[in-house]
Specification:
This protein has five helices and nine strands.
Length: 185
């Protein structure tokens, strides 16, 4: 709370927004593309130069470059371009490479958070955090590490945001004041 210089009135400055967590999907999705990269590099190194015709060696090299670009680089770039940022005021969803999409959801709006996991996600501690914020389709933080912790943090941030806005105190004052109730005089 700060005081104005000439008037003596107090003005409330909102707290600064800080980043609580920056998340990406679990890196487990890069296992098979990386294994394929190692196999492709090993096969190229083994067979390159031992084929009977020079054009076959060039074709082998070109094929392996295409395989690496399509089956390793594209999944890596896709994984790198999906980010979730949780701040003290909102959740920011960013994805896309050529067409970038950014969505935001304020904690003060209120929402329902649940965690959905399959057996593999349960094994490594990750999961899909589904955020239902109303009639539109739910926001999904796909395959984030420590999904249960993310759910708890989102619940805490939502409670703090609602308390900051004053909804908790306002609800209690409405029920305490009988003149504020509908249909009563």
């Amino acid at each position: 709370m700060t005081k104005s210089a000439g008037t003596g009135t107090a003005s409330v400055t909102p707290p600064a927004e800080t980043v609580v967590a920056g998340l990406r999907p679990h890196a487990r999705v890069l296992f098979w593309p990386t294994a394929l990269l190692l196999v492709a590099c090993g096969a190229t190194g083994y067979y390159y130069g031992s084929l009977p015709e020079p054009w076959q060696n060039s074709a082998l090299l070109a094929t392996m470059v295409a395989v690496v670009l399509l089956l390793w680089l594209l999944p890596l770039v896709s994984w790198l371009n999906r980010r979730y940022t949780i701040t003290t005021r909102r959740i920011i969803f960013r994805r896309g490479f050529f067409v970038r999409t950014r969505q935001e959801l304020l904690h003060s709006r209120g929402y329902d958070v649940r965690v959905r996991r399959n057996w593999l996600q349960s094994l490594v501690g990750s999961g899909d955090v589904v955020i239902n914020a109303g009639p539109e389709h739910p926001f999904v933080l796909k395959d984030v590490p420590n999904a249960v912790l993310v759910q708890q943090v989102l619940h805490d941030l939502m409670e703090q945001a609602r308390a900051r806005v004053g909804l908790v105190g306002q609800d209690q004052s409405i029920t305490a004041d009988p003149s504020a109730l509908w249909g009563r005089r």
